[in-house]
Write a structure and sequence with these properties.
Mean pLDDT: 94
Domain Amine oxidase: 11-426
Number of strands: 20
Protein name: Amine oxidase domain-containing protein
Bound molecules: flavin-adenine dinucleotide
Pfam family, one: Amino_oxidase
CATH superfamily of the largest domain: FAD/NAD(P)-binding domain
InterPro entries: Amino_oxidase, FAD/NAD-bd_sf, SQase_HpnE, Zeta_carotene_desat/Oxidored
CATH class of the largest domain: Alpha Beta
Distance between the termini: 13 Å
GO molecular function, one term: oxidoreductase activity
Helix content: 25-40%
Structural class: alpha+beta
Oligomer: single chain
Radius of gyration: 22 Å
Largest sheet: 5 strands, parallel
CATH architecture of the largest domain: 3-Layer(bba) Sandwich
Shape: globular
Number of helices: 15
Length: 428
């Protein structure tokens, strides 16, 4: 078949790769000049180098993405730094590490050995996790993460120290709004799985190079082509006047709705368009800092205390990612960056640098900052709230599929969900 894929984010690239390996003739249309969508390489004039549009991490539980990389022939060890789960606060107030024991003992041992929590708090956490396991990770419908935690006697210290940062990092949605059921899925696939599932994988290459560019190497690709019009024909679908047998629309909901609204209308298509309109979005910011010299912190990834709600939550020292490389880049991640967005940029950058400097001072003095780049992705992910209707990849039109992290993946807006949806759309 002759198949078009619209959008070269992780969902579109996964779909294109799968279609190609199945012997179909694939054309990819991408509106921007780059491959990778919301997880891509950019050039930063301020830093004078390439970097990513935002610091990303993957989990060992991202089995489908990791499997796909293997299929493409890419070695994991040269592209990703895999480490056991080690949630360590930069200021030393908290640490939770996974122990190398069979599941679920690794989780229990990790919880019991956590630093910064009282025995009663550890007991409450262990009891809550045990309840989730017994429930097979199913929570009552319509609950937010905060409501669920409060129902299970997780006190405010525990929530602020552990659950809140984990929820915002995993779902990019504040704990008062985030969907408890999706959060339970995240816990099931990471903490509740085998110890490898909770390992973190930090990219060592830029995000476009990680696998999307190699995957699209032999595929017809039109960069800078923003598709304007889809039309159904007797033999398939026309895309801006070009004829295909089928198409996968792998754009975010707003753009997907724009393309799909011109197709013949049915009650099911009206519902689909209404579902696409109902998504709301939350920004993520990354502050990249170029230091005067490599920092060489003992850990590549450290948790920051963001009690005031507009600072960074995670610090990534790229010199610790590649020991001995002399790398001078540092990334600070600000999820749920709604408040940060409203601040004056220079002021926000200075405040985050000060936050990082203060919270790491007992580890190793931070070298002077030579340059900075604050990137705010306004529609980084959809708000993962209870009751959100997420469409399946099938559509009311038999020659059209949709794909993206926002489809009904069972995950919040994450890379693994995007890849899974792309593969599923290609399969169907
Ligand atoms: C700053 C940031 C940090 C993140 N951190 C993490 C993380 O640590 N871990 C994690 O798992 N996830 C993270 N995410 C989420 C992750 O990046 C997304 O889930 C994933 O990239 C979504 O991929 P996608 O293919 O579904 O959509 P997209 O990446 O949005 O791809 C859609 C593509 O369609 C193109 N397009 C749109 N309209 C058209 C058109 N009309 N014609 C042609 N092309 C079009 C767009 O240009 C885009 O390239 C983060 C996201 C951001 C922004």
């Amino acid at each position: 078949m002759k198949v078009a894929v619209i959008g070269a984010g992780w969902a579109g690239c996964a779909a294109a790769w799968r279609l190609k390996t199945q012997g179909h003739q694939v054309s990819v249309f991408e509106a921007s000049r780059h491959i990778g969508g919301r997880a891509r390489r950019i050039h930063s004039p301020n830093l004078g180098r390439d970097t990513d549009n935002g610091q990303h991490i993957m989990l060992g539980a991202y089995s489908v993405t990791l499997g796909l990389m293997g299929e493409i022939g890419l070695s994991e060890s040269s592209r990703l730094l895999r480490q056991d789960l080690d949630v360590m606060a930069a200021d030393g107030r908290f640490r939770l590490r996974n122990r190398s024991l069979p599941a679920p003992l690794h989780l229990l041992a990790g919880l019991l050995g956590a630093q910064g929590l009282s025995w009663s708090q550890k007991y409450k956490m262990a009891r809550f996790c045990r309840w989730l396991m017994k429930q097979q990770w199913r929570t009552p419908a319509g609950l937010t993460v905060l409501q669920l935690l409060e129902q299970h006697q997780q006190d405010s210290h525990l929530i602020r120290l552990f659950w809140q940062p984990l929820c915002v990092a995993a779902m990019n949605t504040p704990i008062e709004q985030a969907c408890a059921q999706l959060f339970a899925h995240v816990l099931r696939d990471s903490l509740g799985g085998l110890p490898q599932a909770s390992q973190t994988l930090i990219p060592l290459t830029d995000l476009s190079q990680l696998w999307c560019e190699p995957a699209l190497r032999d595929i017809q690709l039109q960069l800078g082509h923003r598709v304007q019009r889809l039309e159904l024909t007797e033999s398939g679908v026309q895309i801006d006047g070009l004829q295909f047998d089928a198409a996968i629309v792998a754009c975010p909901p707003v753009q997907a709705a724009r393309l799909l609204q011109s197709l013949p209308s049915t009650p099911a298509s009206e519902q689909l368009l209404a579902d696409l309109e109902a998504f709301t979005y939350i920004p993520i910011a990354t502050l990249y800092l170029e230091l005067e010299q490599a920092w060489n912190l003992p850990h590549a990834m450290l948790m920051l205390d963001d009690t005031n709600g507009s600072g960074g939550q995670w610090l990534f020292d790229h010199s610790a990612l590649k020991p001995g490389s002399g790398e001078t880049l540092v990334g600070v991640v600000i999820s749920d960056a709604v408040r940060l967005q409203a601040l004056d940029r220079e002021h926000a950058i200075a405040a985050i640098i000060e936050q990082v400097r203060t919270q790491t001072q007992h580890l190793k003095a931070m070298p002077a900052v030579r340059a900075s780049e604050l990137i705010i992705e306004k529609r980084a992910t959809f708000a993962a709230i209870p009751g959100l209707r997420r469409p399946a990849v099938t559509t009311p039109w038999s020659t059209i599929r949709i794909a993206g992290d926002w489809t009904d993946t069972g995950y919040p807006g994450v890379l693994e969900g995007a890849v899974r949806s792309g593969l599923k759309a290609a399969h169907l």
